[in-house]
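Subject: design request, 226 residues
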């Protein structure tokens, strides 16, 4: 990945990238715990995020056991210098000396409806996900942030990444100034569904996004009528 500078620090984007990769690896461990615990989840993006956040990422026992004590995770936090309200804000030790120095994770639900269309959740993943970083609705102090896709129906996730990449090239979708389409990453052991992409924001400054796809299709509670 292209080496990017973050203003005000003596070390470069390789350091930030490595740090975020480590955090995302820990999130994948939390995901594995959720699957092992057979956690029941509603078919609701915010509620799935809340379970991941409140019962795992903010759980002191979990944080201690998997090595997350250097980070604080908060939900639905309004940003100070943009209009964004982050799904998950990750504060690091640097945040205490430079308040804008934090990572953002945007969460989006994904299902099998209209996978290649401009009105399905794949399109939503772009228009109200990736594009929020491109448009600077969300800040990117470190020039690297992440997204999590909550997969709520059985699908071939790798194939769906191909669908999302095709939509990134669709002129009817918000232009995400993509310089590197979403491709597989390899920094998390024993977890296949992690990826990264690269884009330019509206000021033509480059940034990177990681993408975790968490398959909760077997955990979604079924609505029973009557």
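Subject: RE: design request

Done. Sequence follows.
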């Amino acid at each position: 990945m292209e080496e990017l500078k973050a203003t005000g620090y003596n070390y470069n984007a390789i350091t930030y990238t490595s740090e975020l990769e480590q955090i995302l690896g820990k999130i994948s461990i939390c995901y594995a715990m959720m699957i092992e615990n057979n956690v029941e989840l509603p078919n609701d993006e915010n509620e799935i995020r809340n379970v991941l956040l409140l019962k795992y990422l903010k759980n002191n026992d979990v944080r201690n056991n998997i090595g997350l004590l250097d980070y604080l995770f908060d939900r639905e936090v309004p940003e100070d210098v943009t209009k964004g309200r982050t799904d998950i804000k990750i504060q690091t030790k640097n945040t205490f000396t430079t308040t804008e120095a934090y990572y953002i994770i945007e969460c989006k639900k994904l299902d099998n409806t209209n996978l290649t269309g401009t009105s399905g959740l794949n399109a939503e993943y772009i228009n109200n996900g990736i594009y929020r970083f491109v448009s600077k609705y969300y800040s990117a102090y470190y020039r690297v942030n992440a997204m999590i896709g909550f997969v709520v129906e059985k699908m071939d996730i790798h194939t769906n990444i191909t669908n999302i990449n095709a939509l990134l090239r669709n002129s009817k979708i918000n232009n995400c100034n993509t310089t590197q389409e979403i491709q597989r990453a390899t920094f998390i052991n024993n977890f296949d569904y992690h990826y990264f992409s690269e884009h330019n924001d509206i000021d033509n400054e480059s940034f990177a996004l990681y993408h975790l796809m968490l398959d909760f299709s077997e955990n979604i509670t079924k609505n029973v009528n009557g």
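The two ends are 53 Å apart (CA to CA).
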